[in-house]
Amino acid sequence: MDTRYIKNSRLRRSSAIKKGLAAGLSAAFLTAGTGFYLSNRILYIAKKAEEAITERETKAGRYDKNVYNQLPKEEVWVSSLDGTRLKSVFITPNPGQPYVIFCHGVTEHKVNSVKYMNVFLKRGFNAVLFDHRRHGESEGSFTSYGHFEKHDLKAVVDELVRREGADVRFGIHGESMGAVTLLLYAGTLEDKASFYVADCPFSDFRKQVQHQIKRELGFSPPFFMTIAEWAVWLRGRYKMAELSPLKAVGDIKNPVLFIHSKEDDFILPDMTEALFNAKKGPKQLFMAENGIHAQSYNENPEEYEKAIDRFLSEFHLNP
Q: Of 50, 75, 252, 257, which has the fewest Cβ atoms less than 10 A away?
């Protein structure tokens, strides 16, 4: 056989192998880079500046520092299951009456919950505000959209029971991620609250992430989700597929008030409608006419409070 032909064949094979390796390495780097970017967006979502939240709520008349400071309260640190310390505030203007625990949304902190707290204080309740992990004054390095946060909520509940006794009555109100957290808590850990108010939760985290990718890029390639799920699992040690309030809500026995704005295009209102339909037993639904995501109260305060009153009255939940 011609030695030149053998040599050229070997060179061609070597070149093909090198090209294959280069393509494989490029694909690996692209996959790793995509996974790092997507998981960063999820685990380390940019938070709003704490001072900006307080200033926003103050200017809107939803937070009055002087009034808040005059409320009888105690600030405490609550340790979660994994040791993460959560800054919590127990507020007691109505001694001996039930409590409402408030769970704020992602990128916010406990001052954003004050407007909801005021609604319930006027109706004779006490309150517990706290910062989710990685938010406000609480510890924590990343966000898990309810996976670890549901255990944080349980730790706050446990502290309330420790302070007030096993017979303490309480409800839980949550906005956005806070609403997801309370649904996962009640549906997978313990249905211990007398009632729940879930304001604009997502029904399934994978679908929510797909929706956000499509909003930003105009399309949502399936392999993006696969890469994101693996990257979040490797870096955050939780599975996105497990963040499904829709699977959990069927196990909640106590009353739930579902709230969403019809104009919300961040978390679509049909997610709350699906949750409402999946919930068995006592429930109500309030769909606000105005407001984008997490603005149902801000844009419809009178209707929001009437919805709260109907809910509390129908299920005999008032103090």
A: 75
pTM listed for this prediction = 0.91
CA distances from 301 to 63, 89, 245, 280, 304 (A): 14, 24, 26, 28, 5
Q: Treating both helix axes as pointing N-terminal to C-terminal, what angle do 222-236 and 205-217 enclose, rounded to 10 degrees?
A: 120
- Please provide the size of the chain in residues: 319
Q: What angle do CA 267, 297, 317 make, to 5 degrees?
A: 105
- For CA atoms 109, 112, 118, 119, give the dihedral sign: negative
Radius of gyration in angstroms for the set of CA atoms belonging to the chain, rounded to a whole number: 24
Question: How many angstroms from the chain centroid is the CA of residue 312?
Answer: 24
- Average pLDDT along the chain, 319 residues, taken 10 residues at a time: 51 48 43 74 93 97 98 98 98 97 98 98 98 98 97 98 97 98 98 98 95 79 83 93 96 98 97 98 98 98 98 97
Residue 83 DSSP symbol? S
> What angle do helix axes 222-236 and 3-43 make, rounded to 10 degrees?
70
Nearest to 155 by CA among 134, 131, 127, 175: 131
- Element housing 259 (H / E): strand 256-261
CA-CA-CA-CA dihedral for 245, 248, 250, 253, to nearest 10: -110
Phi/psi-derived region of residue 252, left when phi > 0, alpha when psi is between -120 and 50, beta in every other case: beta
